């Protein structure tokens, strides 16, 4: 029997439910109207059905039209630029095969774009990154608009791709949906060692050859990057929401266990898609409690700051309204039970070996910090996600549960089993019990003050640097900041402010390239912090960064009032972000304008013209940077 929900968990959930009553009721009513229709092959005209199945083998056509067998749409984010998604190349054939074995059919409904932020980091393409989330949601809708499917298998892992797929799927909330991950790459150069080489390169101590060698040793094969950034935070949150086969997130792409889990995704979808069985459309599954469970999992693992934007949008797609105050109140009571780089030294493979999502979810359920009574795609409710999967091998050589194995089984007699992970040591370095955590509070914090509202990822920042007070140096581009660093202009205590980086200004790119030079300044003994209306991503490092400042400068936010030399206080302990300027002066001060050349530079070239409509209509970061409301 699960313990009673923690009072704060219950109170925040109740407030979200009350706030969301109107839009949630309207959303569920739309789902019910769609569910009242006949199945696709029975509802559509004969020409529509013939077009949909024209290229399928005759046995599949027979199953769909005559036998009325379940028919699933596959929406894939495959490309082989993105290492995490390269394994998806062969998934459609595998999923189609398993569907046939299960007496069903599956068809690739469509593909969605999948952008690698590692490739575009610091480049013009990064200005399309945030908007790619909503483009992916739209592409998902286009795929599912064929409207012949009884359920969907969603293939995506990385930063904007999972939120985009989830937003798109929630707009087809009448369909049961299962997410199908592919797993992380094997451990390469340690993330901490990679960061040191980056800092040495920023300081001019090593050249491009050494930097490229280090980066290539860190990012060296198929699978997700091994640090706990947005991509791997996505996978943790999907486990907490019950949208994966339990425990599927962090199994290596080439392990036989990975194939068994991928095949099980089809069986899982079949179980929740049959109307006479445990029918579970995604729009009903994702309710207020499930959104809160995702928020708690993010906080308990010190996950990506990007999700304070993305999950606001995900929730809104299901008619649920959340804000950063909800995150802040949960963070005050949710313990930090995992340390994965950049919050610790371990990578996600070590996290998985230490119990991974199964440990985190089990500890949070035991502490009453997750809602246990929720629907999930896996059988057994959320408790099933407090376990880790393994396989009994029949006719397969090698260690089936090891991520190091390169044997991929084609033997469909593999039988999955689940068991609870070994208890975490009280003084563990990767995971700990909720009763003896790394920190009594979550890894993210809300900052408020006369500069607006912002978030800071405290789990990666030493406590001695949770309060920084220093004169501001203002920039309107990251290139200008990097130039000032190289010129030696920042060799002092400084709060670096990079403004006009919000969604309306230039698509709110990640400013991760700024971490190495700021870390170099910090390493030289200076008090350093970053304040920006841009993003820093799940890879935010050890430099204090007040990010996502809302309202953004271009929308009249107070960050535009700052001037060089104003003293700024970034106080993660008190939860404040303030310019220490007297009130009369501050009230009388005009907002600075974005330089014309900056506007021109970010509106044209490399496809950025195509996203002008997104920039005009996008909401604020705290509102989810949504372009479709």
Explain what the structure shows:
With 629 residues, the protein is an alpha/beta fold. It has two domains: 7-36 and 69-121 and 129-186 and 221-419, no CATH class; 444-617, IlvD/EDD C-terminal domain-like (Glucose Oxidase, domain 1, 3-Layer(bba) Sandwich), CATH 3.50.30.80. It is 38% helix and 12% strand. It is built from 25 helices and 14 strands. An eight-stranded mixed sheet has the order 7-8-12-11-10-9-13-14. A four-stranded parallel sheet has the order 2-1-3-4, with helices on both faces. The chain has a two-stranded antiparallel sheet with strand order 5-6. α10 (191-202) packs antiparallel against α11 (208-218) and α10 (191-202) crosses α22. The longest helix has 18 residues, at 256-273. The radius of gyration is 24 Å and the shape is globular. The protein starts with 6 loop residues before the first helix and ends in a 12-residue tail after the last helix. The model is unreliable at 395-411 (pLDDT under 50).
């Amino acid at each position: 029997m699960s313990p009673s929900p923690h009072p704060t968990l219950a109170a925040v959930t109740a407030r979200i439910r009350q706030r969301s009553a109107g839009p949630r009721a309207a959303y569920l009513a739309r789902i019910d109207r769609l569910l009242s229709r006949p199945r696709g092959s029975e509802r559509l005209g004969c020409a529509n059905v013939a077009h949909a199945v024209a290229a399928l083998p005759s046995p599949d056509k027979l199953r769909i039209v005559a036998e009325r067998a379940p028919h699933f749409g596959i929406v894939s984010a495959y490309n082989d630029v993105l290492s995490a998604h390269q394994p998806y190349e062969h998934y459609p054939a595998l999923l189609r095969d398993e569907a046939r074995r299960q007496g069903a059919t599956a068809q690739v409904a469509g593909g969605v774009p999948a952008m690698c932020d590692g490739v575009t980091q610091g480049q013009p393409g990064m200005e399309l990154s945030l908007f790619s989330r909503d483009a992916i949601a739209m592409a998902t809708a286009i795929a599912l608009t064929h409207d012949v499917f009884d359920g969907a298998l969603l293939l995506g892992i990385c930063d904007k791709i999972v939120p985009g797929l989830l937003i798109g799927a929630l707009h087809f909330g009448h369909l049961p949906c299962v997410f199908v991950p592919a797993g992380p790459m094997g451990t390469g150069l340690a993330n901490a060692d990679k960061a040191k080489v980056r800092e040495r390169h920023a300081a001019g101590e090593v050249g491009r050859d050494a930097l490229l060698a280090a980066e290539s040793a860190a990012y060296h094969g198929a699978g997700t990057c091994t640090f706990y950034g947005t991509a791997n935070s996505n996978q943790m949150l999907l486990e907490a929401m019950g949208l994966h086969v339990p425990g599927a997130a962090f199994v290596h792409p080439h392990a036989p266990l990975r194939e068994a889990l991928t095949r099980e995704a089809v069986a899982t979808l079949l179980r929740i898609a049959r109307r006479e069985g445990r029918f579970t459309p995604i729009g009903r599954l994702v309710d207020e409690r499930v959104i809160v469970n995702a928020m708690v999992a993010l906080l308990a693992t010190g996950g990506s700051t990007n999700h304070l934007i993305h999950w606001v949008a995900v929730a809104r797609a299901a008619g649920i309204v959340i804000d950063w105050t909800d995150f802040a109140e949960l963070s005050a009571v949710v313990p930090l039970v995992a340390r994965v780089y950049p919050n610790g030294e371990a990578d996600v493979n070590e996290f998985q070996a230490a119990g991974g999502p199964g440990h985190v979810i089990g500890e949070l359920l035991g502490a009453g910090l997750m809602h246990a009574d929720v629907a999930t795609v896996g059988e057994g409710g959320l408790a099933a996600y407090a376990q880790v999967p393994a396989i009994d091998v029949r006719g397969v050589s090698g260690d089936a549960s090891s991520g190091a194995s390169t044997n991929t089984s084609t033997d469909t007699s593999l039988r999955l089993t689940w068991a609870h992970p070994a208890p975490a040591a009280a003084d563990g370095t990767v995971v700990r019990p909720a009763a003896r955590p790394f920190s009594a509070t979550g890894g993210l914090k809300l900052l408020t003050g006369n500069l607006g509202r912002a978030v800071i990822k405290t789990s990666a920042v030493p406590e001695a640097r949770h309060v920084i007070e220093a004169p501001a140096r203002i920039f309107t581009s990251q290139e200008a900041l990097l130039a000032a660093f190289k010129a030696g202009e920042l060799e002092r205590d400084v709060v670096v402010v990079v403004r006009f980086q919000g969604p309306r200004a230039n698509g709110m790119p990640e400013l991760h390239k700024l971490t190495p030079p700021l870390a170099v300044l910090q390493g030289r003994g200076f008090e350093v912090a970053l304040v920006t209306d841009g993003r820093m991503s799940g890879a935010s490092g050890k430099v204090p960064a007040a990010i996502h400042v809302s309202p953004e400068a271009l929308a009249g936010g107070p960050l535009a009032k700052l001037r060089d030399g104003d003293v700024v206080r970034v106080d993660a302990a008190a939860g404040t972000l303030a310019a220490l300027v007297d009130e009369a002066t501050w009230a009388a001060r005009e907002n600075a304008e974005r330089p014309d050349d900056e506007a021109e530079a970010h509106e044209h070239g490399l496809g950025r013209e195509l996203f002008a409509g997104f920039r005009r209509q996008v909401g604020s970061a705290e509102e989810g940077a949504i372009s479709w409301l």
